[in-house]
Q: What sequence folds into this?
C-alpha cells in the first residue's frame, strides 16, 4: 500500500485528487493544509463518502514542521498543490508568491529528497507560457517558450526548474509537472466541489451570479484580439484533471521525469461561458464590462497530446454544459 502526501488537499483541486485516490483504493492518504483557502468540512466529506484520511493542519512556511512531518512518516510520493494562485494579486504582492510558491516548494523538495521520497507530482500552470506569439490549431505544446507575464506564472516556472535540477542531481527522485489550463466544475457525484471564498474563477463566479449570490458579474476586458473581444481559455473539468494526477503517479513507476499539459485542446471565450451558464441555469443575470486585469493573456489553449500519448489518460467530461452544470449544482448545495 502506497503512502501519499497531498499538500493543499483541503482545497479545490487537491480534494478531487484525494477523492480519486481513495476511490482507487490501496492507498494511505495524508493531507496537509493550512486551511487558508481549504476547508475542514472538505476533509470530513472525503472521509464520510470515500474513506479514511489523516489530516494535519500545517503551513508549508513552517519549515521545521515540514521536516518533522517527513521525518516521522515514510511517504512513497507527494502531490503538491499548496500555493497562492490569483494572478492579479501576484502582480500586486509578488513577494507573497515567490515566498509561498517558490521558496516553500524548494524546501519541500529538499526535505522530500532527504527523507527518501522518490515520486513528486507538481501542480503547475499554463501561466508559465505567458502570452504566446502564436498558438497552433492543436494548442500550446510543452515545448513552447516559457515566458510568464506575471509573478504567479514565474513562481511556478521557477519551481519547475528547481524540480528539474533536483531530479538531475538525485537519480532516485522523479517528478511530473502538470501544467493546468482553466480548471472548473465540481465532482460529478456531487460530494465535493469548489468552496473557495471570494472566488475569481469565471465559471464559479457565473454560477454564483446565476443563483443571486452576486448582484452582477464582470467581463474584464472586451477588446482582446479574439473573435468576440474576450479572453479564450481551455476549460477542463476538475475530475478529468484529478484523473490525470493518478496517471502521472502511475507513469513514474516505469518512466523518468516529465512535463505534461492538461486540457482539452479547445477554448471558449468569456462570453461563451457566460451564455452557457445562463442556458444551463435557465436564468439571465447582469453582466458588465470592466477594464482588463493585469497579467491576463488573450488566449490559452492546451495541446495535451503528450499526456494522451504517453499515459492512459482519456477525458471523460469534455463538455462545457456539464462543467457549468456541476459547478452550478455544487453552488446550490453551498446555499442549503
A:
Amino acid at each position: 500500500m502506497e503512502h501519499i502526501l497531498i499538500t493543499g488537499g483541503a482545497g479545490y483541486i487537491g480534494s478531487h485528487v484525494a477523492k480519486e485516490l481513495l476511490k482507487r483504493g490501496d492507498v494511505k492518504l495524508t493531507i496537509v493544509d493550512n486551511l487558508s483557502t481549504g476547508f475542514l468540512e472538505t476533509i470530513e466529506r472525503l472521509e464520510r463518502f470515500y474513506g479514511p484520511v489523516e489530516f494535519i493542519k500545517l503551513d508549508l512556511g513552517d519549515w521545521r514542521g515540514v521536516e518533522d512531518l517527513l521525518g516521522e512518516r515514510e511517504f512513497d510520493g507527494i502531490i503538491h498543490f499548496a500555493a497562492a494562485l490569483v494572478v492579479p494579486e501576484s502582480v500586486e504582492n509578488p513577494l507573497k508568491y515567490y515566498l509561498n510558491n517558490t521558496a516553500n516548494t524548494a524546501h519541500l523538495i529538499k526535505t522530500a529528497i532527504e527523507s527518501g521520497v522518490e515520486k513528486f507530482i507538481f501542480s503547475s500552470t499554463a501561466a508559465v507560457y505567458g502570452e504566446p506569439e502564436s498558438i497552433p490549431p492543436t494548442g500550446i505544446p510543452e515545448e513552447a517558450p516559457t515566458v510568464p507575464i506575471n509573478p504567479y506564472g514565474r513562481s511556478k516556472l521557477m519551481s519547475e526548474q528547481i524540480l528539474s535540477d533536483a531530479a538531475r542531481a538525485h537519480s532516485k527522485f522523479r517528478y511530473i509537472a502538470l501544467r493546468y489550463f482553466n480548471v472548473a466544475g465540481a465532482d460529478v457525484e456531487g460530494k465535493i466541489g469548489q468552496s473557495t471564498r471570494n472566488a475569481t474563477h469565471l465559471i464559479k463566479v457565473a454560477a454564483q451570479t446565476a443563483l443571486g449570490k452576486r448582484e452582477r458579474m464582470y467581463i474584464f476586458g472586451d477588446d482582446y484580439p479574439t473573435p468576440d473581444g474576450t479572453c479564450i481559455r481551455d476549460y477542463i473539468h476538475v475530475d478529468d484533471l484529478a484523473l490525470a494526477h493518478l496517471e502521472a503517479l502511475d507513469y513514474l513507476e516505469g518512466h523518468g521525469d516529465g512535463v505534461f499539459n492538461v486540457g482539452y485542446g479547445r477554448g471558449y471565450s468569456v462570453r461563451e461561458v457566460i451564455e452557457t451558464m445562463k442556458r444551463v441555469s435557465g436564468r439571465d443575470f447582469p453582466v458588465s464590462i470592466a477594464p482588463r486585469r493585469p497579467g491576463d493573456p488573450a488566449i490559452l489553449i492546451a495541446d495535451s497530446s503528450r499526456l494522451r500519448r504517453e499515459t492512459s489518460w482519456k477525458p471523460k467530461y469534455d463538455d462545457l454544459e456539464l462543467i457549468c452544470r456541476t459547478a452550478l449544482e455544487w453552488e446550490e448545495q453551498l446555499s442549503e
In short: The chain has a mean pLDDT of 95.
